[in-house]
Amino acid sequence: xxxxxxxxxxxxxxxxxxxxxxxxxxxxxxxxxxxxxxxxxxxxxxxxxx
Length: 50
Known about the structure:
Blueprint (H helix, E strand, L loop, with lengths): L2 E4 L2 E4 L7 H28 L3
Antiparallel strand pairs: 1-2
């Protein structure tokens, strides 16, 4: 069973409510976008010659 940890408490994904599941998907999408943007920021200064 897959779990997610929130405030140091592990929750089984199957135990999440119907309302919590889309919220989790939104948080995961936001986290992925943050990682993508951080990678872009790491590339940008060297590419500009700084």
